[in-house]
UniProtKB/TrEMBL annotation:
<dbReference type="Pfam" id="PF01177">
    <property type="entry name" value="Asp_Glu_race"/>
</dbReference>
<dbReference type="InterPro" id="IPR001920">
    <property type="entry name" value="Asp/Glu_race"/>
</dbReference>
<keyword id="KW-0133">Cell shape</keyword>
<feature type="binding site">
    <location>
        <begin position="76"/>
        <end position="77"/>
    </location>
    <ligand>
        <name>substrate</name>
    </ligand>
</feature>
<comment type="pathway">
    <text>Cell wall biogenesis; peptidoglycan biosynthesis.</text>
</comment>
<protein>
    <recommendedName>
        <fullName>Glutamate racemase</fullName>
        <ecNumber>5.1.1.3</ecNumber>
    </recommendedName>
</protein>
<keyword id="KW-0961">Cell wall biogenesis/degradation</keyword>
<dbReference type="InterPro" id="IPR015942">
    <property type="entry name" value="Asp/Glu/hydantoin_racemase"/>
</dbReference>
<dbReference type="GO" id="GO:0009252">
    <property type="term" value="P:peptidoglycan biosynthetic process"/>
</dbReference>
<comment type="similarity">
    <text>Belongs to the aspartate/glutamate racemases family.</text>
</comment>
<dbReference type="GO" id="GO:0008881">
    <property type="term" value="F:glutamate racemase activity"/>
</dbReference>
<keyword id="KW-0413">Isomerase</keyword>
<dbReference type="GO" id="GO:0071555">
    <property type="term" value="P:cell wall organization"/>
</dbReference>
<dbReference type="GO" id="GO:0008360">
    <property type="term" value="P:regulation of cell shape"/>
</dbReference>
<feature type="binding site">
    <location>
        <begin position="44"/>
        <end position="45"/>
    </location>
    <ligand>
        <name>substrate</name>
    </ligand>
</feature>
<keyword id="KW-0573">Peptidoglycan synthesis</keyword>
<feature type="binding site">
    <location>
        <begin position="12"/>
        <end position="13"/>
    </location>
    <ligand>
        <name>substrate</name>
    </ligand>
</feature>
Length: 260
């Protein structure tokens, strides 16, 4: 098994992790990347924990065989159920995602926070421990929103089609009582512009991408494996272990990265 390489692996169930990869390209433009979209098993958030664990381990083994020096589990659901075990299995830095609850609470001045995530993320003990640790004023609410993952994977980005879905999902909530919305799934920042159309201007919309990549940068520096040579930030895409060579799909990946 090849546990060394010069690329950073990214893993998600589908398109969502592209939002984190886009941030990595901004902060770490000289690195090379391997992006694994597990389209055969998307979405993760509505499946059982055991099923998702097996998919994750298979995906990571594939990336390891390609030669990676670090791994980003660019999926909140996958992180919550597998990142601890992955860190015990592999010697390279492994960075996961978690909903940005802590900064939302810290910056909210006691006002309410709504966390949007997948059903599996919200069921996991890791999420509830996070909320219990930082939500001392009991201001955090959360809402499962698997419909957004499905829209993203169907490549539905037309605002006129997405806005009714978001409005319907939030219809039971008093939006005026919230200061911050946390996009707790990496698919959701694909719709950040739509949320800004739907929500009042005073509501902050945040996700964990920037903090995740900053931590990745820190680990690469700490391990002395940060690429300081100017490179082109090469990216190779894989769909459940198969190289993506379809020009249309490649254009979709690249367009999403450019527009974020």
């Amino acid at each position: 098994m090849n546990t060394s390489g010069n690329s950073i692996g990214f893993l998600d169930s589908g398109f969502g992790g592209i939002t984190v990869l886009s941030e990595a390209l901004k902060q770490l433009p000289n690195e090379n990347y391997l992006y694994y979209a597990d389209i055969e098993h998307v979405p993760y958030g509505t499946k059982t924990k055991g099923e998702v664990r097996s998919y994750i381990f298979e995906a990571v083994e594939f990336l390891v065989r390609q030669g990676i020096k670090a791994l980003v589990v660019a999926c909140n659901t996958a992180t919550s159920i597998a990142v601890r075990d992955l860190r015990s299995m592999y010697p390279f830095p492994i960075v996961g995602m978690e909903p940005a609850v802590k900064p939302a609470v810290q910056n909210g001045n006691g006002k309410r926070v709504l966390v949007l995530a997948t059903p599996l993320t919200l069921r996991e003990e890791k999420f509830h421990n996070l909320v219990q640790r930082v939500d001392t004023e009991h201001v955090v609410d959360y809402l499962a929103f698997p419909e957004l993952v499905e829209l993203a994977e169907q490549m539905v980005f037309d605002h006129d089609k997405v806005i009714p879905v978001i409005k319907n999902k939030l219809s039971a909530y008093d939006i005026s009582s919230y200061k911050t919305f946390v996009l707790g799934c990496t698919h959701f920042p694909l719709y950040k512009k739509v949320f800004k159309e739907v929500l009042p201007e005073y509501i902050d919309i945040i996700d964990g991408s920037s903090g995740t990549v900053k931590y990745l940068n820190h680990l690469l520096e700490e391990k002395n494996i940060l690429n300081t040579q100017k490179d082109s930030g090469k990216i190779k895409y894989f769909d459940s272990g198969k190289p993506v060579d379809n020009p249309q799909r490649l254009n979709i990946f690249n367009r999403i990265i450019t527009e974020l």
